[in-house]
Write a structure and sequence with these properties.
Layout (H helix, E strand, L loop, with lengths): L4 H17 L8 H9 L6 H5 L3 H24 L4 E5 L6 H5 L5 E6 L1 H10 L7 E5 L19 E5 L8 H15 L3 E7 L4 H9 L12 H8 L2 E4 L3 H7 L9 H8 L1 H6 L1 E7 L1
Helix pairs in contact: 1-2, 1-4
The protein binds S-adenosylmethionine.
S-adenosylmethionine binds next to helix 1.
Amino acid sequence: MLSGIPATSLWALRAKAEEHSKPQGLFKDALAAKWYHQAQPLFTPEVQEQYSRTLQKAIAVRTHILDRLVIRHFQSHPNGSLLELGCGFSTRFARLNLNQGHWYDLDLPELIELRGSLGFPAAPLHWHIAHSVFEYEWLDYLGQEKPEEMLILAEGLLMYFPLNQVRELLGHLQNHFKGAHLAFDVMGQLNLKAAQRAAIELDSPIFWGAKNMQSICSELGLTQAGDLSLSTQMRQEPAYHKGLSLLGRSLLNWSWLSRQLGGTVLAQL
Ligand SMILES: C[S@@+](CC[C@H](N)C(=O)[O-])C[C@H]1O[C@@H](n2cnc3c(N)ncnc32)[C@H](O)[C@@H]1O
């Protein structure tokens, strides 16, 4: 059984499987649907109780925003690399099926083992690293990658650790991959408390949120490198409006409000 932070990855798996089953969802993800089916015994009542339609939508949009970022990354750097820290049940490699670059998925050994048992299609150029992100010897596995051609994703990960620990991790990433891009998500003032209440039920406290993207970048010593905020993404991608009421749409288009909901930060190390 999964517990603590690893159990939160089940929410993301379910959200992707459900998006797959929508006739007009943001993406298709047959592998997530298959894994979700196989992983049913892991979905304890605690995991199910904290899941909601809002969480499903938020995870689906976050996934799609990052998918678009990854596609753009490999268009600019066909031989570049992608590293997913705390990958959980990420199925991005199979979902995007880009067949280029080097892909590294890193998570704790129990999660990597579980992914293996669910059956990840073997592919050259795709590696699974079974390690805590805080035990830094894993950084040497990526020694041959060029930082300027590297994108690192930390999707649903950093908020679960105190800021000091996150700063230490970022320091190590900067030492090894100075100039690489890093995308991670943050809770804003409006949804932090609700997210904390849900996460604590799985014994995985959320330690921090952000006032805005710039402030969290400067607090963490990062340079903001793009705008992946919800309001900008909503303007660029009409598909994100689906399923929202007129009021919901107008509110999310209001950039002040959407800043209060947090979102995805793109920074340069
Ligand atoms: C909310 S889940 C996010 C999963 C995935 N990124 C996604 O969005 O579907 C958090 C993930 O962080 C992983 N994790 C927790 N502590 C970790 C650590 N010290 N090192 C690496 N991964 C860790 C958990 O196992 C879990 O898979």
